[in-house]
Structures are given as structure tokens and as C-alpha cells.
Amino acid sequence: MTNKWSTSISELLLIFRGTLIAIIPWVEKAKIEWSDENSYDEWDNIIEALYQSIVCSSLEGEVKTNYSIAKYGFEYKHYSDLDYILVKSEIHSNKQLAFVSFTSSSEPFDGVKVAVLENEDQVVGQLILEMADIEFAYVKKIDDEKNIYEEIDVLI
């Protein structure tokens, strides 16, 4: 019997963010640096595994090692060949924004680093936004057409 879980893309990203916050004390005990300016390969490996397991596998409906979804924390020159997490911001409602990573300023992961997209999904800049001001959606490209999903059904 297959069950499904209906959730929003925003909720999925909040779960991922919450997981990162929850493991901070444990990675600190393991002497793994997690903060933006001090993190290294160990943290990158942990965060990528969690991103793929929580976000990517939920969006694509299967567990695998290679997804067409933009990688966490990776800075692309364009998103024209990728599926990606769209960031919606009332403050920047006139801009198309792609999720890059969570950032920390006063609290762990209290911000979001985004790529600003224009003309065929070319990156023209970056912004840091506060978590309180945003929502997420999923941009999946099918036959050169962008399909935007705010909610998904995940098989469990």
C-alpha cells in the first residue's frame, strides 16, 4: 500500500532548514564547522546529503544520486537547463529569484541567498533575503516549458 503526503514546497524547505538547525549541536560536538564563513567539505557533504534526501527526492519522487534540480549552495551562471526552487518575495515581487542556500546573520539559517534571474534564466545578481519575507515554489522544466508547483504529493 502506498501512502502520500501532500505538502507545500515552502514546508519542504522549512523542514530542511529545521533539520540543519537541529544538527548544529551534534556537528559542533564532532568539531565540524557549519557557519557560512568557516564551513568546509564535511559540512558541505552533510548538507548536500540532507538536501537530496529531504528536498530533491521528494520533488522528483525517487531516491537517486543525480538530480536535475539545482544543487544546494552552488552558484550557476544560468538556470536554463535546470529545475530549481523559486523564491517568492513580496519585497522583490518584480524579480525572478532562484534559491541558492540558507545563510546566517543573527541566527542560524535566518536568511536565504538567491540568484536574480533575467532573460532565459541568466543570473544577473544575488541577494540575501530574510526568511520571514519569502515563500518557495518548484520550477520544473518539461518540454522547454516552465511548470511551477507550490504544492506536491510525496509518496511515502
Entry summary:
26% of the residues lie in helices and 35% in strands. It is an alpha+beta fold and 156 residues long. The chain has one domain (4-155).
Can you offer a commentary on this structure?
This protein has 156 residues and is of the alpha+beta class. The chain has one domain. Helices cover 26% and strands 35% of the residues. The protein is built from two helices and eight strands; from the N terminus they run E-H-H-E-E-E-E-E-E-E. Strands 5-4-3-2-6-7 form a six-stranded antiparallel sheet, covered by helices on one side. The radius of gyration is 16 Å and the shape is globular. The termini are close together. The model has no long low-confidence stretch (mean pLDDT 91).
Question: Would you spell out the secondary-structure blueprint of this structure?
Answer:
Layout: E1 4-8, H1 9-29, H2 41-60, E2 84-89, E3 96-103, E4 111-118, E5 122-130, E6 134-142, E7 145-149, E8 151-155
Helix pairs in contact: 1-2
β-sheet strand percentage:
35-45%
Spatial gap, N to C terminus: 10 Å
- Secondary-structure-based class equals alpha+beta
Biggest β-sheet: strands ordered side by side in the sheet = 5-4-3-2-6-7
Assembly type of the shown chains? Answer: single chain
Total domains, how many? 1
- SSE order in H/E notation? EHHEEEEEEE
- Overall geometry comes to globular
Number of strands: 8
